[in-house]
Amino acid sequence: MVKRDIITKEWAVRNIVPIVRIVPDAKYIIVNVANSFNLSDEETELIRKADILFDTSGRTIRSDDTLSELLKRFGKNKCAFGTHSPFLDYLTG
């Protein structure tokens, strides 16, 4: 029988940084970015250079990482107001 690892908690953006380092030319969609996207300057630059799209759907972004901060840090071309809108709004968790 094959043992499979199961992700038991949602990842923050920092959790995908090692993957982007290994495969920098891939295209990424980060679905339901709601956990921390607080990164070091080096990690921020890596994410800025990568072909990544953040889907902001689902639930409220943490209070210390606001949607406006996400837009300022990574640019509007990296954000999609995605799959759960308008069924879930950005004010209701």
Indicate the topology.
Layout: H1 17-22, E1 27-30, H2 41-49, E2 51-55, H3 67-74, E3 79-80
Parallel strand pairs: 1-2, 2-3
Instruction: Walk across the major sheet and give the strand order.
Output: 1-2-3
> What overall geometry do the principal axes of the alpha carbons give?
globular
Return Rg in Å. 14 Å
H and E order: HEHEHE
Ranges where pLDDT stays below 50 over 5 or more residues in a row are none
Helix run count? 3
How would you explain this protein's 3D organization?
This protein is an alpha/beta fold and 93 residues long. It has a domain at 24-80. It has three helices and three strands; from the N terminus they run αβαβαβ. It has helices at 17-22, 41-49, 67-74, and strands spanning 27-30, 51-55, 79-80. A three-stranded parallel β-sheet has the order 1-2-3. Helix 3 links the parallel strand 2 and strand 3. The longest helix is centred in the middle third of the chain and has 9 residues, at 41-49. The protein is globular and about 45 Å long. It starts with 16 loop residues before the first helix and ends in a 13-residue tail after the last strand. The mean pLDDT is 78.
Q: Which features does this protein show?
A:
93 residues, alpha/beta, 3 strands, three-stranded parallel beta sheet
What is shown here, in short?
The chain is of the alpha/beta class and 93 residues long.
